[in-house]
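ok new one. same drill as before - structure tokens go in, u give me an amino acid for every spot. 409 of them this time. try not to just spam alanines like last time pls lmao
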């Protein structure tokens, strides 16, 4: 073993209590960072899944330009057949054809402009969480021709209940006047006021007939098995599409840019707190190493007088800090990984989470994932900050005078 490494390891344990206290601070901070970052990632995954399952899915096949304009004429031809073809080619059942437009919904008392979506009930249940959020009545039946489910806020604004009829008025694909009457069979309470205020779903066949769509729709929503499969699934979906149809594939980042920005903003604010913790640990290391250098001033003066260079002494101090940081990192990652393994099986919850989960149709426990980022990102930052903190004690050796150092008490 290199003599410098042996000396560095031996010097760490000249004051074992001080070394263990500093290492303990590193271990505590590393375990806390592993837990918090992994919990944050788990909450982001749950938030993304909840948002995407409500409306967009992980991917959507649309006509080129529909994402930005959402014009009625920007259609996906033979939308049901395309969805069936994608299920066969991708080997995935969570694929649903959709059509969407804006129309005027009128009850006996009031009228409101809303977004109406035509869906296949069975397929929609595999892609969207909305069918599971029906709090009154039921979701749409297969083959029904004149049923509608509406948001809870919309039902309250229109003063309608289950069994009441809504008159829908809008424009057809061919520019004709579109009008129909649908019976309310379900009321959805998603917990998102904007969605519940202006959203309704009808069977896809009823939508196509009312708005003169023929066999066309506006999108095919795809729910991937997980976020990490979205990229490969997007490429496979694009390969299935015909180049002549003018269709494109959009992933969830393109469909929900605000969601990504919200996550980035939250992650940045969280790292402010993490940074405070890392700085505190760095100052603890600085104090430890500065005390270690000062109490060995006479010893350093002797070896400098014997011809040892300040650079080699500086590397010794830097190596001591690195070894202590690595020890804290290994123990912190091991304990943090054990905590994550337990939470990954049993989950983590806090007061009030079960009520919120029931309201938004999401799990009432968070299961932090075990990932390389969650395990290593925080401890690596602590290690780098600790090594940086040892630079000041190391630089003091470059201005140390051998004679003055040997006279030190």
């Amino acid at each position: 073993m290199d003599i410098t490494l042996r000396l560095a390891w031996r010097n760490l344990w000249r004051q074992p209590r001080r070394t263990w206290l500093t290492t303990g601070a590193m271990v505590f901070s590393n375990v806390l960072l592993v837990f918090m970052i992994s919990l944050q990632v788990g909450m982001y995954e749950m938030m993304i899944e909840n948002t995407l399952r409500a409306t967009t899915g992980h991917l959507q096949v649309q006509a080129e330009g529909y994402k930005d304009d959402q014009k009625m004429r920007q259609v996906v031809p033979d939308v049901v057949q395309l969805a069936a073809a994608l299920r066969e080619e991708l080997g995935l059942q969570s694929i649903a054809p959709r059509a969407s437009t804006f129309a005027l919904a009128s009850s006996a008392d009031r009228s409101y402009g809303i977004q109406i979506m035509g869906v296949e009930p069975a397929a929609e249940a595999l892609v969207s969480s909305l069918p599971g959020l029906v709090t009154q009545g039921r979701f749409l039946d297969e083959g029904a021709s004149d049923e509608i489910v509406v948001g809870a806020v919309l039902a309250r604004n229109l003063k309608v209940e289950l069994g009441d009829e809504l008159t829908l008025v809008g424009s057809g694909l061919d520019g004709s006047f579109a009008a129909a009457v649908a019976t309310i069979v379900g009321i959805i309470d998603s917990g998102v006021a904007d969605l519940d205020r202006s959203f309704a779903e009808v069977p896809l066949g009823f939508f196509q007939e009312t708005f003169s769509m023929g066999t066309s729709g506006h999108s095919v929503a795809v729910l991937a098995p997980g976020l990490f499969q979205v990229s490969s699934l997007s490429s496979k979906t694009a390969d299935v599409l015909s180049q002549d149809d003018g269709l494109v594939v959009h992933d969830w980042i393109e469909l929900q840019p605000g969601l990504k920005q919200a996550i980035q903003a939250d992650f940045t604010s969280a790292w402010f707190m993490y940074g405070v913790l890392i700085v505190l640990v760095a100052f603890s290391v600085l104090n430890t190493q500065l005390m270690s250098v000062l109490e060995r001033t006479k010893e350093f003066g002797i070896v400098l007088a014997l011809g040892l260079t300040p650079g080699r002494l500086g590397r010794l101090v830097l190596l001591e800090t690195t070894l202590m940081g690595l020890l804290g990192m290994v123990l912190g990652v091991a304990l943090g990984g054990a905590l994550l393994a337990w939470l990954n099986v049993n989950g983590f919850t806090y007061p009030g989470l079960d009520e919120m989960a029931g309201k938004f149709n999401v799990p009432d426990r968070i299961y932090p994932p075990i990932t390389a980022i969650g395990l290593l990102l925080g401890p690596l930052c602590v290690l780098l900050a600790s090594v940086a903190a040892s630079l000041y004690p190391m630089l003091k050796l470059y201005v140390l005078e051998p004679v003055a150092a040997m006279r030190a008490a």
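The chain has two domains: 3-51+259-406, 59-223. and btw Residues 3-51+259-406 form one domain.
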